[in-house]
Design goal:
transmembrane; 3-stranded antiparallel beta sheet; 244 residues; wza like fold; Outer membrane lipoprotein wza fold like; 30% helix; 2 domains; porin; 5-stranded mixed beta sheet; porin activity; cell outer membrane; 6 helices
Length: 244
C-alpha cells in the first residue's frame, strides 16, 4: 500500500512539472483565440532593404567575370557606409534602401548600357537571427529569405532547455539603440498567429530562465536584459577581433 501511495505522489508531481513544458495549450479566453484567427487572415508582407555594412552576392550569369565571386574565394562585397558599392564596368552605385528585387532591376538596367541582355541576381549574405538565453544551442540562425518564424528558429537551435520560460519569450527588433520589444507566450494556442511569430533579419530572440519574473512591458523595464544582451554582443565582437 505504501508503495502505491508513494507512486501516486510521484506521478502527481511529474504531471504538475510536465504541465509547465506543454506548449500551445487551449486558452480559457475564447475571444483571444477568435482574434488570433482573424489576425491570421492578414499576413504581414515584409521585404528586407539593403543597409550599409551588408554583404552582397551579385551574379551576372552570362558574364561570370563581372560577378562578385572570384578565384580567391571572395563570395560577396560589402555595402559602404554611404550606401554604395563599387562594381566593374558600371562603377559606383547607390544601393542601400533598396529591396533585393529593386537592386536587381537597377543593376540590370545599368549593365544593359554595356551588355546584351544581362541577367543579374542580387542576394544578401549576412542576414541572420540572434537567439540567446535558454535554448540548447544559443547563437545565430542564417536567414535565406526576408523573414522566418519563431518556431522554426527555436527548433533550429535545438529547442528549449529545462530552465526555459516558454510563456515569456522576448523578440527585440530595431536594434539595441531603438528597441521594439514583443512578448510571446508559447504555452497558449492563441500565440499561433502569423503576426506574433514572424522574425525579420537582425531580430533578437531571448528566452528567459524560469527564475526571472515577468518584467514591465515598457522598454525601461527591459533595460537589464538589453544591457546583458549588449554585453554579449560586445563580447562576441571582441572574440571575433582577437581571432583575426
Amino acid at each position: 500500500m505504501k508503495k502505491i501511495i508513494l507512486m501516486g505522489i510521484f506521478l502527481f508531481f511529474i504531471g504538475c512539472s510536465n504541465k509547465n513544458y506543454i506548449l500551445f495549450q487551449q486558452d480559457t479566453n475564447t475571444t483571444a483565440i477568435k482574434t488570433s484567427k482573424k489576425q491570421n487572415q492578414t499576413e504581414i508582407v515584409y521585404e528586407y532593404k539593403i543597409m550599409p555594412g551588408d554583404i552582397l552576392s551579385i551574379t551576372i550569369y552570362n558574364h561570370p567575370e563581372l560577378s562578385t565571386a572570384s578565384k580567391e574565394g571572395v563570395s560577396g562585397i560589402e555595402v559602404y557606409k554611404d550606401g554604395t558599392i563599387m562594381l566593374p564596368l558600371i562603377g559606383k552605385v547607390k544601393i542601400a534602401g533598396l529591396t533585393k528585387q529593386e537592386a536587381t532591376l537597377k543593376l540590370q538596367k545599368l549593365y544593359a548600357q554595356y551588355l546584351k541582355k544581362p541577367y543579374v541576381s542580387v542576394n544578401v549574405l549576412n542576414k541572420k537571427i540572434y537567439v540567446l538565453g535558454e535554448v540548447k544551442s544559443p547563437g545565430t540562425v542564417p536567414l535565406m529569405g526576408d523573414y522566418t518564424n519563431l518556431i522554426d528558429v527555436i527548433s533550429q537551435k535545438g529547442g528549449f532547455t529545462d530552465m526555459a520560460r516558454r510563456d515569456h519569450i522576448l523578440i527585440i527588433s530595431g536594434g539595441l539603440k531603438h528597441p521594439v520589444i514583443k512578448q510571446v507566450d508559447l504555452t497558449k494556442i492563441s500565440s499561433l498567429n502569423y503576426n506574433n511569430l514572424i522574425l525579420k533579419p537582425n531580430d533578437i530572440v531571448y528566452v528567459q530562465p524560469v527564475n526571472i519574473k515577468p518584467l514591465d512591458v515598457k522598454v525601461q523595464g527591459y533595460m537589464p536584459i538589453l544591457n546583458f544582451i549588449n554585453t554579449l554582443f560586445g563580447t562576441f565582437a571582441n572574440i571575433k577581433y582577437i581571432s583575426k
